[in-house]
Amino acid sequence: MALRLVVVYDFKLPVGTNFRSLLSYGASPGFPTDAGLSENMSPSRPTRESRIDEVGHLRRRVGELESLVEDHNRKAEEATRADERFRSIFNHSNDGILLVDPARDEILDVNAKACRMLGYSREELLALPMSAIHPHELVRFRAFAQSVHESGEGWTDELSCATKSGGVLSAEISAAMLDVDGRRCLIALVRDTSDRTRLLREQKYLLGEIRTEGRFGSIIGESPALKRVLQQIEMVAPTDASVLIVGESGTGKELVARAIHENSRRNARPLVRVNCPAIPNELFESEFFGHVKGAFTGAGQDRVGRFELADGGTLFLDEIGEIPPRMQSKLLRVLQEGQFERVGESRTRKVDVRIIAATNKDLLRESEAGRFRQDLYYRLCVFPIGIPPLRDRKEDIRPLALHLSRQSCQRLKVPTIRLTREDLRLLELYDWPGNVRELQNVIERAVIVSRSGALRFDLPPTVPPTPDDDNLVPGSMDAIVSDAEMKRRERKNLLAALERTGWKIFGPDGAAMLLGIKPTTLASRIKTMDLKKAD
User: 83-92, 230-239, 471-480 — which is least confidently predicted?
Assistant: First the structure.
């Protein structure tokens, strides 16, 4: 009875593997295959032992193949996981990443951050040439790519990028070269520096404000009128309401604006000041809203306007009554809609700004006369604050004078000069038409010219108004009075000056200096007019 040996081995082969080729691959040097039979040899039936050896050898070879396949699959899985990790890092990076072929001006790959920064979808960016991202600085970008290519090292530079909306993104770009599928490519990390640029602008502005800040320090005074102003500041500061500060020049309107801002929720952002009378009419729009390069003759670069600089903070419009009518309508639009365009740019920008305005004019009367838009006036005058002149709050002169004298001595680097009681009394007698600013100038001038430690104030004469003067209009026929009336007024004026100075004629606080005449002249007039001190 013939015996047949059947060997069954369960092993896995890659799909498409040819078994005959596998036998050829696994044959040992002594194992004959169909291709290896000699022409003079006829195939003979293998012996049982040779078949067992053949199967054992085949098992070993298949085992080796299985090991190779497993190793290949493991490495493929590792490569897949590494690619997934890279893709995850690529897409979740805080910086935009672009893979670029600068020679062909192609964008090969981008991450999600770059899409968000530039405002495009991934498909839109991959369809764009790289030159479309740097249209404003294409020459600089090409020089930058050339530098990276030639150096073979990482390179960083500041370049602006164009966004889909037409805006310009300030960016820091770090790039290096690498080979991808046989192509020499540039991988660029794009970091949005808009916030840093904005902070640098704010820092530059605030440093300038520190250098030019008013020298009065903080609000100083103890009069009832000033206390009412402080109460109003306390009420309105926490809100976002527009404030209109009304007062004569030199009363400290900017100090009130600063106090409102510093006590508001916006105090972490800047208070930006615009001195409206100092701006030429043709530059108002650029000063307020900024401009783009080439918008007009002399616009050599982009410029950020005061509204954009004050975004999130407070904009103080000093002497707003000086804004020309053409600009008032544009200002009203920003206040109503919170939107504006830079000069020469079609892109609409949004801004969140609180407005504090100041004026020494009666804007309501100006609006009734057609010189100021009435709707703009009511938009600004949500919460009006009136600052009384210094002549109406005499109680504040003494603390202000003491503070300003110390401040002047420190700034001028001279020994501290003490104000006497007579000095303070003389200052209180003056009407201060220039208000606190004039007081500061008078004290500083006195400190400069002082030699012996005593101050001498150079005050112009003050002529107190009389009731009869109220109806006089300079230049009109009604201003002509008789000689007898002039003498009556002169007598009344001399008496008022003598009463104010306690009938002191000579000295820096005497009536003669107050009237601006020589003491001997005053003594002569007192005698001529037979003026006598009341008991």
Answer: 471-480
Cα distances (Å, whole numbers) of residue 258 to 200, 203, 273, 317:
21, 17, 10, 12
Q: Taking the CB of residue 102, how many other CB atoms lie within 10 A of it?
A: 21
Q: DSSP strand E in 183-242: where?
A: 183-192
pTM tops 0.70: no
Q: What is the pLDDT of residue 377?
A: 92
- Contact of 418 with 406, CB cutoff 8 Å: no
CA distances from 158 to 55, 170, 190 (A): 70, 8, 10
Specify the length of the chain in residues. Answer: 535
Tokens of 98: 């672009």
Residue 375 has pLDDT above 80, yes or no: yes
Q: pLDDT tens digit string along 1-39? A: 444 444 444 444 454 444 444 444 444 444 444 444 444
DSSP string, 38-55: -TT----PPPHHHHHHHH
289 exposure class (CB count in 10 Å sphere: 0-12, 13-18, 19+)? buried
Does residue 333 contact residue 288 with C-beta atoms inside 8 Å?
no
The domain of 384 spans 197-388
Q: Are strands 314-318 and 271-275 parallel, antiparallel or unpaired?
A: parallel
468, part of any domain: no
Task: Please tell me the predicted confidence (pLDDT) of residue 266.
Answer: 92
pLDDT digits (tens, 9 = 90+) for 386-426: 999 999 899 999 999 998 988 888 888 888 888 888 888 88
Same domain, yes or no: 170 and 230:
no
User: Is 382 in the same domain as 266?
Assistant: yes
- The helix (run of H) or strand (run of E) holding residue 309 is helix 306-309
CATH of the domain at 123: 3.30.450.20
Long-range contacts of 146-151 (CB under 8 A, 24+ apart): 148/175, 148/176, 148/177, 148/186, 149/102, 149/177, 149/184, 149/186
Choosing from 363, 388, 413, the residue where a domain stops is 388
| Residues 401 and 364 grouped into a single domain | no
**CA pair distance 307, 289, nearest whole angstrom:** 6
Instruction: Please determine, for residue 237, whether its predicted confidence score (pLDDT) is greater than 90.
Output: yes
